[in-house]
Amino acid sequence: MDNLDYGIIGNCRSAALISKNGSLDWCCLPEFDSASIFAKLLDEKKGGSFEILVDESYSINQEYVRNTAILVTRYSDGINIFEVHDFMPRYHRPSPKGGYNAPPEIVRYIRYVYGKPVFKVLYNPKLEYAQGETKTYIKDNFIASLTREVRFDTIFLYTSFDKQTVMNGGDINLEEDGYFLLGYNEKILIPTLEKVYLEMERTKVYWLNWSNKTPTYHSYSDQIKRSALTLKMLSYDKSGAVLAAATTSLPETIGEVRNWDYRFCWIRDASMVIKVVSRLGHKNIAKRYLQFIIDLMPDKDEKLQIMYGINKEKKLTEKTLEHLSGYKGSKPVRIGNAAYKQRQHDIYGILMDVIYTQLEEFDTDIENGEELWNITKGIAWIVGNHWQEPDKGIWEFRTENRHFTFSKVLCWTAIDRALKVAEFFGKKHRLKKWRTLEREIREDIHTNAWNEEKQAFTQSYGSPHLDASVLLMESYGFIEAKDPKYVSTVHAVEKELCHDGLLYRYKNEDDFGLPSSSFTICTFWFINSLFKIGEEEKAIAHFDQLLSYSNHLGLFSEDIDFKTKRLLGNFPQAYSHLALIECAMNFSKKRSEIDILESMEKNDK
Q1: DSSP for 36-84?
Q2: Mean pLDDT, residues 430-450
Q3: CATH number of the domain within which 425 lies
Q4: How many angstroms from the chain centroid is the CA of residue 181?
Q5: Which GO terms describe its molecular function (predicted)?
């Protein structure tokens, strides 16, 4: 496969990627950041997969059950037809126990449709990132796979089909529905077809109910709902964390070394996701995330890291898996992420923005008010003492620190939102000091980030380089959309960073040379900026073009190749989908307003 033509299934505990041909090529169990069970995505020979194989006479089509996370792959040769319904169980437990049933399991429900379909199975698990030998044994009730070399690990496959035929890759003649249930734990009660079907229907109802809470929009409603479902699948219920993506080491450019592990919770990415999902009306995910933040900050003087493990781990040691060849030969494969040590001042403003948004939207339903006020005071103190220092910036430059414009703007945002939170809680005694600080940061940015020659706010103080992140100055309220300086900045960014409708993050050299792929969220930011400054038709044309570059299921990764338009980088990417939702909501709102005006004009006539 030349593109990231994968669907994601998940249950807010872990996730798996299934190719458009029905091959399960990436899965980590029992949790998102556990060692992989299947990693063909990162090494076609060694990684391991779970494949449904048919002969060349079959055509294969794939789509989600509408408004759910159940992925259907349909195989048909015109006469003989069957479907594979892939999902990870998730549904409400019956009372009085309550909560959610979300076991570390994947179900592949094989639905007989018509004729006499025949398929084979390639079942080849490679536990612990395929670091040692995985041995597989047929037992009375299941197929067990285990490894002992790196550390002991096991996986169990239950099936309604003949286990010997499955393991030998023999023909399976389908005459009725069947199933595969892959579980991290041995089952107490042996699965049956009826029980597995019930799991699928309960899971379907859960997702339909969740999607029903997302409003229906005038335009792009299907794209908004699919993106919202994807963001939900990247959330981790146990702690409230939100992952940047479900994968590790998918390269930003084929054959290069910008390969990172994204199965962690970046404060920036997660806070942006929560803000958008909250606007869609999903309160619980926001509440859980705020509790995640509260739990991370027990000490009043403790600085936030830029990222944490999904179970609140603070140390995310980075290492390489030299035995894996990497996606399309792009080494190294990394697990862990050394960026957790970096200083990035923007996280404080982004977090304060999401805290204020929650207070504003759910003021009668907010919990932990005292803890949130305590965090607000702590952030204002940290920003007040450190905003004048350089940092690594939003793009995580691994070498020198700089005075990045985006970081400064978000320091301003932190104090601006702290002022609003103080007013919300009636804490008047903080206002005078914080207002002075807010004014000082704002004036510093206008003085030092503006480049007269470029007629734009640039990447960092004194720099001639443009950077897509400065487009967010308007979104965070630092500057008005129609301000001549902002309009000029949008046009300067378009001139220098836009190529064939796609945006570079920046074009100056970083730690690994010149960037050579488009960063998807930056294109969405640019489109949103065009829309805000009044170039609405142009913005919508760019948006429709960008949507056409998604994969067959409407999913986006982190990057897009300028030339081929293939998806690159970790997948699916929370950043990309939250920005898609923001654009689509703005466009839909505007379209609704136009329709209302046109309707009023008709009635007047």
Answers
A1: EEE-TTT-TTTS-EEEEE--TT-EEEEEEPTTSS-EEEEEESSS-EEEE
A2: 97
A3: 1.50.10.10
A4: 26
A5: hydrolase activity, hydrolyzing O-glycosyl compounds
pLDDT of residue 365 exceeding 80, the answer is no
496 & 572 share domain: yes
pLDDT digit string, tens, across residues 558-583: 999 999 999 999 999 999 999 999 99
Q: Strand ranges (DSSP E) for 324-410? A: 334-335
Q: Are 170 and 222 contained in the same domain?
A: no
If asked whether residues 37 and 142 sit together in one domain, one would say yes
- Separation in Å, CA 25 to CA 334, 417, 454, 543, 573: 17, 43, 47, 30, 17
Q: What's the pLDDT tens digit per position in 303-328?
A: 789 999 999 999 999 999 999 999 99
Q: From the centroid of its chain, how far is CA 482?
A: 31
Tokens read off for 56? 């060349």
Cβ count within 10 A of residue 38: 30
Total residue length of the chain: 605
CA-angle at 382, arms to 377 and 385, nearest 5°: 125
Q: Whose CA is closest to 358, among 373, 379, 346, 345?
A: 373
Q: What is the pLDDT of residues 252-270, one digit of tens each?
A: 989 888 899 999 999 999 9
* Average of per-residue pLDDT across 16-37: 98
Structural domain harbouring 352: 213-597
Q: How far apart are CA 169 and CA 595, in angstroms?
A: 58
Residues 388 and 535 occupy one common structural domain = yes
Output the six-digit token pair for 571: 């997948």
Specify the pLDDT at position 593. Answer: 59
Please identify which residue in the block is written with the tokens 């872990």.
14
176 and 228 part of one domain: no
pLDDT tens track for 505-547: 998 876 555 667 899 999 999 999 999 999 999 999 999 999 9
Q: Give the per-residue pLDDT at 303.
A: 75
Rounded CA-CA distance 169/189 in Å is 27
What is the count of structural domains for the chain? 2
Residue 39 maps to which CATH number? 2.70.98
> Are residues 172 and 293 located together in one domain of the fold?
no
